[in-house]
Amino acid sequence: MQLPVFNFYGQETGEIIELDDNLFNCDPNDHVIYLDVKQYWANQRQGTHKTKERGEVSGSTRKPYRQKGTGNARAGHIRSPLWRHGGTIFGPRPRSYSFKLNKKVKILARQSAFSYKAREQKLLILENFELSAPRSKEVIQLLQNLKLNGVKILFITPQPKSNLYFSARNIPKVEVKPVSELHTYNIVNVEQVIILKDSISGLEKFLGKS
């Protein structure tokens, strides 16, 4: 698959980048995308939910009345789940929602996500550029040059914590991720993916190319 390279001013530079069809134009697998995104959201859950059970609520353990002869149902203490202010039966306990996915499944999910973007013509290669300091105005100007104002965008950079990251983090609908922190969810959750040219070699390794 061949894609043209654009510069900061939204113009084609004349350079063509050849992307591996096995990585960026494979037959997408919807189920593995679902599994990888599901794992992403499961890992975001804190799992700290907790309700008090019969041994944890306040109240006496004294038997409220004698076992027989009162006409009432027998009761051991007032903390019973059947009583008002009693403990909760089978309430939530702290737990981890994370689950394991095989490495090959995650790789196929990434490849499938990029392949969908390529088919929808939502992949764009951007020539490398350097911001001397964090400036949101310059990123906004770049989006205007590319005619992508108001579009949900993901920038893929070779290194984390770049000036581009600090410039774009307060711009709505714009996310900057280095290759090392990229997830399938980041790809499917945006309308346009912009790949900096320097990121391509690392991205191919990220997608499973040896």
Strand line-up in the sheet with most strands = 2-1-3-6-4-5
Total strand segments: 6
| N- to C-terminal distance | 18 Å
* Whole-number total of structural domains: 2
Would you tell me the structural class of the helices and strands? alpha/beta
Largest sheet: 6 strands, mixed
Order of helices and strands: EEHHHEHEHEHEH
CATH architecture of the largest domain: 3-Layer(aba) Sandwich
So what's the overall shape? Answer: elongated
Quickly count the helices: 7
Cα-atom radius of gyration:
27 Å
State the CATH topology of the largest domain: Ribosomal Protein L4, Chain: A
In CATH terms, the superfamily of the largest domain is Ribosomal protein L4/L1
What's the pLDDT, averaged over the residues? 92
The percent of residues in helical segments reads: 25-40%
Low-pLDDT sequence parts: none
CATH class value of the largest domain: Alpha Beta
Percent range for β-strand residues:
5-15%
